[in-house]
Design a protein that fits this description.
Pfam families: Lactamase_B_2 (PF12706). It comes from Kribbella alba. This is MBL fold metallo-hydrolase. This protein is of the alpha/beta class and about 250 residues long. The protein is built from seven helices and 14 strands. It has one domain: 4-Layer Sandwich (Metallo-beta-lactamase, Chain A). The strands form two sheets. The chain has a seven-stranded mixed sheet. Strand 10, helix 5 and strand 11 form a beta-alpha-beta unit. Helix 6 crosses helix 7. The longest helix is centred in the last third of the chain and has 11 residues. It is globular, with a radius of gyration of 17 Å.
Length: about 250
């Protein structure tokens, strides 16, 4: 597998990066993890819209899904259209929520261009086995494990510390983990996001091989968040940056 960072800014797009979006490729298949604000433009540096195999949404906050509106427009009005509907996996109610975001009636909403599926615990998507688990956030949210051959990538989405994430990430080759808040941050009273210390601790408990810190808001320094995560994770810790790639 190959992981490419399309957008890694947390909560909002930043001056040098769209919000969350990641391209995972293997055997010529293109799987997108989240399509947050501004990420559709970055995605098109790597592939055209008809080359998208699947979109996988961790949850329905705008910084993780809102460029689905732009994708709908491209799929509907591009000179290359119509082409086969693009599968979109997400939480229950994704189709209705995205129809509302674009002020469309529920029927058909975006369903003529996009094919919506609700997350199951395990599903086969192209060459990938994709496993999910519910995590801790104000809305229904999922961590996502993508497996190909004997390799595994786990994406936290947005979450507070949870044993469910540790179990999903067990033995993964790479954990792509949010670290949206700073350690001892007073803005995290409900523990609905991870701090760097949390990210490192969860990675350590799961026994992952590499930890990549992402979803850092533009008001924090990415490298500082990564350095803080190194205090609790003894393995390799890297910083997600736009266009960074990782072989898995």
């Amino acid at each position: 597998m190959k992981l490419t960072v399309l957008g890694c800014s947390g909560s909002v797009p930043g001056p040098d990066s769209p919000a969350s979006s990641y391209l995972v490729t293997a055997d010529g298949f293109n799987l997108i993890l989240d399509l947050g604000s501004g990420s559709l433009g970055a995605l098109q540096r790597y592939l055209s819209v008809p080359e998208i195999g699947t979109i996988c949404l961790s949850h329905l906050h705008p910084d993780h899904c809102m460029d689905l509106c732009g994708l709908y427009v491209a799929a509907k009005y591009s000179p290359a259209s119509p082409f086969p509907r693009i599968p979109v996996y997400g939480p229950p109610g994704t189709a209705s929520r995205m129809a509302l975001a674009y002020d469309l009636p529920d029927d058909p909403g975006m369903e003529e261009e996009l094919e919506f599926h609700t997350w199951q615990e395990v599903q086969q998507i192209g060459p990938f086995t994709v496993r999910t688990t519910s995590v801790v956030h104000p809305v229904p949210a999922y961590a996502i494990r993508v497996e190909h051959g004997n390799k595994a990538l786990v994406y936290t989405g947005d979450t507070g510390p949870t044993d469910a994430l540790v179990e999903l990430a067990r033995g993964a080759d790479l954990l792509l983990s949010e670290a949206a808040l700073q350690d001892n941050d007073p803005n995290n009273p409900l523990r609905l996001h991870l701090t760097p210390a949390d990210a490192g601790e969860q990675a350590k408990r799961a026994g992952v091989k590499r930890l990549v810190i992402t979803h850092v808001p533009p008001w924090f320094n990415r490298d500082h968040q990564t350095e803080a995560a190194r205090r609790t994770f003894p393995g390799e810790v890297l910083t997600a940056t736009p266009n960074a790639t990782y072989d898995i």
